Fold these 3 entries.
Entry 1:
Amino acid sequence: MNTGVTETVVIIVGAGPSGLSTAASLHRLSIPYVILEREDCIASIFNNKSYDRLHLHLTKQFCQLPHMPFPPNFPAYVPIKDFLKYLDDYASHFKINPMFHNFVKFAKYDEDRKKWKVEAEIVGGRCAEEEGGVRWYEGKFLVVATGETSDVFIPAVDGLSEFKGEVIHSTEYKSGERYENKKVLVVGAGNSGMEIAFDLSNHGAKTSIVVRSPMHILSRWSTNLGLMSLTIMPSHLVDSFLILVNKIVYGDLTKYGIQRPREGPFLLKVRDGKYPVIDVGTVKKIKSGEIQVLPRLKNIKGGGNEVVFENGKSYQFDVILFATGFKRSTHLWLQGDDFLLNEDGLAKPKYPNHWKGENGLFCVGLARRGLYGTAMDTQKIAHHVFNLISK
């Protein structure tokens, strides 16, 4: 079933924080838009795929969306429950009504008509007649706001399909409560992996975590002091300060299997998109032996629960939890763009022009600059569009 064409000025793909921020910024300038979302709710990664103890890793002033600060009674580190209420209130305040169940399958710029044409398939609609239907949207501008965390990624591991225990991704994990006394291997030592390992250990799981590459581990207070210092100091000095302070705080972690990179945390974040780990207590458990650090996973021994590691050692596990992040699928539906996004769906241009493509194409939340960077980008996009349509 084809439901016809909806015409507007701006088409936003994605109703997570990036899409909501864009919509709010456009709304304030009275610019018409539609916002398309394949799931049945806003911010589905937070609503449906987050663990219970999750708090935003930075203090709230670095995580609020544009034009509406967090309520003053919210704690410094906002828990997921409060963040979801804030997002609902944000959508209500700016009258954001996404077109849910719209799975974008195709988007291409029409050179003759100077418009973007977007095809969306209706998935999981309210009735059987809607399911599988197609909707078309046309707009002068297109904003890719699908976010960094759009499609679950689990790396290929030899023998994984024959593992006899439980295999899950971090997006399926809620709490360590049901893993008490189980041997759990967390693969991936980013912020989610390290916090989930901490939560598992707190609930009595026999927890191990794979640390595959060097990483910066920073205390909460030093991270926030570093972020504030960036406004008055060059980033290389802030990096030097953070490395020194956290060497003092955590000591030498190499004897626990954790290497520190040569480059500073903010340099790696800007250049490579590699986030430092904000410690929530995991390091203390690693030092006490409650959490075991293991090297890169090599393979699963056929037909059992034995996992072999790069150093030749092997251990038995009941559960393997992959905290290995996400991939983007933008390349499957966005046609004709060779300038703005790379093959992995992240911004190609360097800061500060990473948000701006050609023919009215923009991206937001795809430059690995967090919610703080997203807030700034959406305002730039909205003002740029306003200036173009006002000519």
Entry 2:
Amino acid sequence: MAQTHLSATKSQKERVREMEIMNAGMGETSYAKNSKVQLKVISMTMPIIEEAITNLYYNSTSPSSLVIADFGCSSGPNTLFAVSELIKVVEKLRRQQGQQSPEYQVFLNDLPENDFNVIFKLLPSFQKKFSSQLGVDAGSFFFSGVPGSFYGRLFPKKSLHFTFSSYSLHWLSQVPEHLENNKRSIYISSTSPPNVAKAYYAQFQKDFSMFLKSRAEELAVGGRMVLTFLGRKSEDPSTKECCYIWEVLAIALCDMVDKGLIGEEKLDSFNLPHYAPSASEVKSVVLMENYFSIDRLEVSELKWSSMFGERNFSEAVADLAMCVRAVVEPFLVSHFGDAIIEEVFRKYKEILAGSVCKESSSIMNVTISLTKRG
């Protein structure tokens, strides 16, 4: 039995490397149509991004070109929103100083399985509209897709000036080792044995260290980087601040087990490759690697009530459930098959509706702004 269980866990890790991380396309359950939370987070953290790009520009001597990279760009309009806001800031700054506009090279990175076609199809109309907004004196901008894992090198040495990543680095490169005893749970929960949280944190440390090392090679001295994680204020990794949405999903999957729709062993061999760090955990890895100085480190709170505007309660719950589905459905289909998906998310939505007011009512984000050391 132990060998069979370990084999199932290993096969899940292999699938994590191969699968699409988000629902592709532009359909009703696609990430592109269901990424309101991610857009809200980008908007909330934009002042930190603007501060970093402003400091970069002021510390440069009228740069003729600016190379920007978005790590974990995913697909859909959110990708282009963040980049366009960055370019607007630079254009405003250079006009204030009476300088010539730089040319912009923008690299959009995600795993090879990401639906880059959605982005590329949006580009022609975006570029036409954006060029009109910026004016005739704005520099040219060039977009390129860069498929590959950001837990490794992707660009030549010292070739980037500004990089950012929003809501990507809490996804790990693989499911941690030795989670066989994490029964009827799919992440860290209040019932998880102590080794589970330790295994997740160890994997996060390893992955984030590799990310920092790779970016330190690629960023020019003085280059800036802003990273936002789905995180937590508490030092307890099982807090509902970051675990509630996954606990509800685990309950929905347990309901499938109780109904005989999936096997107990199948559930016990499934764990998400995800870790929501605290601010101190992010800081400790940055200090340990010592490639970057820390300019800002903040925890922000996004209340669920603010995510979906004036929609009524049932519509807001349905939207939240669809956002979660757009992110995790590929993982579930890869492990359990697609036959149970509709029933799982019907149950997920039902549980959310009954408990969302009583439990965690917000999402915590950790944002860190860094400068590449000389």
Entry 3:
Amino acid sequence: MTNLYFDIRDDQWPLVYDEKYNVSVFGLERFHVFDAKKWRNIIQYLKDADFITDACLVKPLPAKKNDLLVVHTKRYLKSLKWSTNVAIIAEVPVVACLPNMFVQCAYLKPMRLQTGGSVLAGKLALERGWAINVGGGFHHCSSDKGGGFCPYADITLLIRFLVMNGLIQNAMIVDLDAHQGNGYQRDFLGVPEVYIMDMYNRNIYPKDKEAKQAIRRKVELANRVEDLEYMLKLRQNLKAALKEFKPDILVYNAGTDILDSDPLGHMRISEIGIIKRDEFVFEMCKEQNIPIVMLTSGGYLRNTAKIIADSILNLHRKGLITGTYGDNGDEGI
């Protein structure tokens, strides 16, 4: 049993977060397309809404080398000791000029903590019926290659840890980030116990043909797709996927880069569209008694943090997530 797994108090929510998730590199993060404080802002919006307090949150432990080696190759982990390699993954060229010790502390350490958060959230979802890691979703990273802001394969690790500990026999990944989730797809090529549904913009990064072979239900979208078409395809395909395959857990990669005006997603989904999307996925899981773990993944506009917070509030209002152990959803904290 890994030390990434631990029991939480009955009065805690299966909402996994630590202030140390947030990245700070001498202020250079302000020049990157990714909002490096997105995770903090999500939590702040939830606090401002009197939805949670710090005491309700679950603080994860960082994934250590032995944890990472469950999936990653030694060669890949060693490659992260070179700042140039990390700069390519993070897509911040100036990182190549920084001492690696600093890169480890300022960027990779927060990412290892978020990775530990994803692994823990998988266990908590089985115990509580749902869990959300307010971070993670590094779906472009595989066992031997990072990319697209993703240095660790947290989705593969989440599933592998559950299987290794005898907690599940199979899993479904539903990836609704705007980009193809090629990292875990490469890891689960030829693994029938992991059913992958990926709905993404076919015209943008990564266009990984080999990884696509792992997708059991592939929904390729065009640029500028809007709410009506998006929700219709989601409803049809998720219902069909759950008829084909009954998972022990559903891993929901809930990227918000599908939002209209996102600089990388090139789709036109509204804020309400994202909230309704999340609601539908959770609704399907609740109907079929499938534990769900949600990861926040991509989303590159400053207002995505508020949308994610609003979506979590909506899930609670609809009774799709409940708080403390035994809460029936009729009352807050």
